[in-house]
Design goal:
Number of strands: 20
Helix content: 40-55%
Number of helices: 25
Shape: elongated
Radius of gyration: 33 Å
Strand order of the largest sheet: 1-10-11-12-13-14-20-15-19-16-18-17
Number of domains: 3
Distance between the termini: 25 Å
Largest sheet: 12 strands, mixed
Structural class: alpha+beta
Strand content: 15-25%
Amino acid sequence: MLADSPKVQFLLISSAHRLLYNAPRPQPDHSLRPACRELSPPTPERTPSAVVQVALVDAQEQSLAPHSWTEVVEGTRDPLFLTGVTFPPGYPICEETRVKLTVYDVKDPSHETRNILGYATFSVGDLLKSKEQQLTISLRTSDGTSAVGAVVVSRLKMGEIEDGEVDHIAADVPGQKCTLVCESPHGTLNDRDNNPLMNAVFKNPVSKLYRFQTADSQWMQVREQMAECTVSFGVPKQLLALYIQEDAARIEELKNLGELSPHWDNLRKEVIAHYGQVISSYQETLGELSKLTGPSFKPSCHKGQKYLEFVPINLHTQRMRVTCPRGADTMYDIITVGAPAAHSQGFKNGGLQRLLSRYEAEKRNFSTAYQCIYYSPEDTAKARQVLTSIGQLYPLISSLADRLLESAQQQSLDRLKEALQTLSDKTEQFVHALKDELVKTALLALHTARPGYVTKLGPPVCNNVGRPGSETPPTADSPTSQKAQDSIPHHSEYDEEEWDRVWANVAKALNCIIATPPLCPGDWPEQLRPLVDVLKGCVTEVADRARKSMTFVLLQEAVCSIPQGLLLKQRRDVVFSQALAALTCGFLMRLYAGVEDKGFLQQLHVVGLVAQFESLLSTYSEEIGMLEDMEVGISDLRGVAFRITEAVSHNPAYLQPLILGRRDHYTVEVPLPPDVFQALPNEIKDGKPLQVYPVLFNIGINEQQTIAERFGDISLQERINVKNFETLDGYYKSLSDKVPLECLPCFQTQTELKDLLGTLGQNVGTKKRKNVEILWLAGAICRRMNGIRFTSCKSAKDRTSMSVTLEQCALLRDEHHLSKEHFLRALDCMRRDGCRIENVQKNIRCRKYAFNVLQLMAFPRCYRPPEGTYGKVDS
């Protein structure tokens, strides 16, 4: 492992572990590199395992301020430490500042058992004034009586290291090369990472800089940057407002449904009361979220907080930029987020996938108990779509009809024809949306619920059969069920032809208007006005009837949902909010990276993008419920489209995404600055909806997955992987049919996309324990297809960190020729000192991955962190 090797392979320079929020960007840091010489062993039988603590001496208060630690180096009396010390600009240090270095012998690295070997002090001024900017100081025992070796302190300016200097440093360890790693919390290598567009939505970046050696002995520069995203809170707040607006509109629609029989009126009041409770709860949550300020992410330790349940867990972007000696910069992005799940509601009865399946199976019995017609999820989705169409098209047709009259008044034939064509198109769209069999049958059902309607069994009886705590819901063969079936009227009791006549009147009125232009221009206003009034009246009647019938469908669905279904709706709202925030973050990251890539933009508007979610959840205990939530949340993203709009300016306030729509169909508008927007293809500028195809692949890797594979059930994971492979394969076929594959990014790996998909298909169809190759293949395919990559576990902190660092090092190996002998060293380096350990610190205020030794024995070997970086902590 990196820190345990007796021969030093890397030089790591990192600053003290700090959390910086919106701090000004510093100039290059000034760093110190400690080393020890001829350390006295604690016993003749044992060589010391040394670690150095760096502290600042406060002369006035006679106290020490611990600053940072090096890593542990074992098995040598002359350790050259990988970890240096950085004092960033603005840090309270000057030439008079004294620094104390304390060297410890670490007997047991896993338990951090340490004994002091000795200490040395020096002033910053002495170091700066030294000719070679290097000091050699005697290391004294704690009582100051005897020397136990020496400490060598060298000054190192970041940004001024050349290859020759690196080789010179490496000469301290004969025959070895070293890799340079430094931390630049807010520094950049390229303005594309910190332009106004990026800075508008990505906040609080933390950066790490590495230099790794390639197989041909060249040096590549690698930079990690991790950042938060404003959509973590922005999307949930917008969605909550839309949820409240939609449910309030549903209450108004129920109130405007007209008179109902006592039975149905009582049920309507009950449903309205439940909607009111949901609205009140959502308003309270929105109010709490609006008060929050500070970091733009929800820490994993807050995943169970009720008022934060709509906010994604630990949402961060992770970008790796690679600069090679002879080649252009290459960027690789991953979005990391905790699995979208309703943690605050618990998983005692499973997650959404199981709960919805169970609920749907029981809903038929509930509908019989309440004398309702059973409507499938597809029917209720159709009802909501019809209501949305009415809300959009009905006022539009009315305004277009008025515009037609204005054109007639102006005696302009061209304008009249244009207005007439638009009115005709929108009316036909209106007819297509509303002339549906569901509307027709729902009108019949509504007729039976009006006061005075009497069936051959007499008036309906309102009862509480099927309510929680009441009698068991009746079966299809029970008397109550038979009564409900008999209460549905025969067609002869309702005039179906009346609905057809209403539509016929719409068509006649429109045809009469279309025939008007052949008349003399002077007659247009007089001829058109009564025809337009007739059309508007007919459309109003259709809209009113259709609105009431669809509202009645949703009333029946809501009646069958009380209270279980409404609770499930709330759970689904929570999970979807987390999933949409992650997707929006990923879309922004991918769009900003490819806004100048013509091939990517063509793909974006022709076929859309694939969004590949990698999950590391187990299929055991609570995590199977999380996976069931996540599956539904990711699936619901299929109803989301993106649209690019032109922002007013570069002001960050105008560059935030805006969400429009309703449940089942949301549009996310993404503003771009005017100069960026104008360079886009016309199809995108014209507002074409941009589709995203979400796919989910899951492979559990922890000890709970071992239990599931040996004694439990992994069918959920198998079904998810097979189903989403089919979606991914279908996307590839559409992509290859509509877009030249030359538009896709080039990779060093020569394997064809089709072959990668074939291998993935074989793997998802093969029963193999912890088959992480499925994740590797899905990730590679996503990148090859210009997709958006996501990685998740329960909190996006520990297993996610192992996966992200593994993927980054695999990309360096496969695409940039990272030497094989340095692969594991680079992997340990990223896990020990890279952005992911900073993510752990941000979440739980501890620099330890939450694993223990027994857990890691169950992990695939390449997902295990280096020694000393893990320990069981609360997460």
